[in-house]
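Hi everyone,

Forwarding the result from last night's run.
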Amino acid sequence: MLFSFYYTERIALFMRKSDPIYETIEDVSSTTNVNYVNAIIKDNTIIPGVNGLEVNAEKSFQKMKSFGAFNKYYLIFDQIKPDISLEDNKDKIITEGNASKKSVAIILSNQKVLIDYFQKNQIQASVLITKETLEKDSKLEQINDDSKYMKETDNLLDSLNQNKNICIVNAYNQDTCQKEKKYLVKPSLNLNRSNIASIKGKIQSGSIILIEETATLEDVKILLNQINYKGLSILTLSELIMENNEIEQR
């Protein structure tokens, strides 16, 4: 019986591999696969890597077989974890996202005027919240900044299917966040009332920008214009620091 199952599977595999669609999938894999990018570690800081992408020939074949023809848009990829990965170094502090993403992340210090502006204009941002300031209907990502009720706020974020595993570190919460195995983040740029002139020239792909409470809406508009001028996208903090290699899969 075992031999029969083995023999049947070997025949099925041979038939798949001799199918023109399968052969084409294997032919294009070498030029379609994407190498991973290792995380960069320096002292106690880390810049996350980016997963590689490897064509899953079996899954791609099953998807295309129903159409009866090869179509590169229906290739299915497996994520390949970097040798040096954020996931193995969560004790390190993230200071930037990976520059290959051509993006930045903006963190708001819960200023209502700015939150309203970002939501109205459909601009991505992450907002520092506490148990009391969490908004169930917010269109922006919310980041737990509640040192007093961290667990309760985590539970609330979890109930809203929001990321509860990011911590903007300071002198008071780093040990606690590390014990909870959260991603430790320290912004690379801080915008306040008086430093827009110097900040805008420092924006680069991967920047994590904290908008302090003293920053004005006009300064933020200048910041956003500069980000756009440099051809950078704005992601949520979760999206910027994650190592998944995002591709369109149909």
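The mean pLDDT is 91.

Cheers,
N.
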